């Protein structure tokens, strides 16, 4: 059985336990990782991938220092179709299609409009992403902060309003189990180029570097383009 399919099956089993069987109610904390992996008969790595999927879908929420909890609004959401990888893939494809349109322009505007403090923040957050990757740590929050710093530096209110969509796409990409290694490698290379253009305040370079980064992500995850 492929790793991706096993993590999807594990996510489906957890979803059934929560929504159908009511074994863990909204607002309640899940058992710790070791206990839960034993209950489900999967490795902790597979469990983490499943938990990330469910968190991205809004079924679970992670509270720093406290653990993983069932989202209180879980009963308001429908079946996310964990048995259908095509639906998940379609949603991810649409998210990255939006990113490929939006984020290159955001990078260009940020180069032009960022204050000295905002530019410093972009560079610092980019370095934080690199540190997470090299340490083998979860980079979700660091990656979100990096892209958020770029969007805020555009000084465009409506671009900032799109940040929740960007955050969802970032979390979905980082959680893409079978592609994690290649995505991390591409991110290191692409971000290095992007940050170099930011340092030079080369808006066209930043725009093209971000477009390349989006293209690499779409290609690695096999998100086919629609015509």
Structure description:
The chain is built from ten helices and two strands. It is mainly α. It has a two-stranded antiparallel sheet. Helix 2 (33-40) crosses helix 3, helix 5 (116-135) packs antiparallel against helix 6 and helix 9 (180-200) packs antiparallel against helix 10. It is elongated and about 55 Å long. Mean pLDDT is 82; it is low at 79-87.
Record the SSE blueprint.
Blueprint: H1 3-20, H2 33-40, H3 44-56, E1 60-63, E2 67-70, H4 85-113, H5 116-135, H6 140-152, H7 157-161, H8 163-174, H9 180-200, H10 203-220
Antiparallel strand pairs: 1-2
Helix pairs in contact: 1-3, 2-3, 4-6, 4-8, 4-10, 5-6, 5-9, 6-8, 9-10
Mean pLDDT: 82
Which structural category do the helix and sheet elements fall into? mainly alpha
Helix content: 55-70%
Shape: elongated
Count of helical stretches: 10
Gap from first CA to last CA: 33 Å
Using the CA coordinates, give the radius of gyration. 18 Å
Largest sheet: 2 strands, antiparallel
Order of helices and strands: HHHEEHHHHHHH
Strand order in the largest sheet: 1-2
Low-pLDDT sequence parts: 79-87
Count of DSSP E strands? Answer: 2
Strand content is under 5%
Q: What distinguishing features does this structure have?
A:
227 residues, mainly alpha, two-stranded antiparallel sheet, 69% helix
Question: Quick recap of the structure?
Answer:
The protein is mainly α and 227 residues long.
């Amino acid at each position: 059985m492929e790793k991706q399919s096993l993590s999807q099956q594990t996510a489906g089993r957890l979803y059934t336990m929560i929504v159908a069987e009511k074994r863990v109610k909204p607002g309640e904390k899940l058992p710790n990782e070791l206990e839960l992996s034993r209950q489900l008969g999967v490795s902790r790595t597979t469990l983490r991938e499943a938990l990330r999927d469910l968190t991205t879908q809004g079924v679970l929420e992670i509270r720093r220092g406290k653990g993983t909890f069932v989202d209180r609004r879980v009963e308001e959401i429908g079946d996310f179709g964990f048995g259908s990888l095509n639906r998940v893939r379609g949603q991810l494809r649409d998210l990255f299609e939006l990113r490929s349109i939006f984020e290159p322009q955001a990078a260009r505007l940020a180069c032009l409009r960022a204050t000295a403090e905002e530019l410093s923040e972009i560079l610092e957050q980019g370095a934080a992403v690199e540190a997470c990757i090299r340490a083998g740590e979860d980079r979700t929050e660091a990656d979100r902060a990096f892209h958020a710093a770029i969007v805020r530096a555009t000084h465009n209110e409506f671009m900032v309003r799109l940040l929740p969509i960007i955050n969802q796409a970032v979390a979905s990409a980082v959680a893409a189990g079978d592609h994690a290694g290649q995505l991390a490698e591409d991110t290191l290379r692409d971000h290095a180029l992007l940050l170099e253009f930011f340092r030079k305040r080369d808006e066209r370079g930043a725009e093209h570097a971000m477009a390349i980064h989006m293209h690499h992500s779409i290609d690695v995850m096999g998100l086919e383009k629609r015509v």
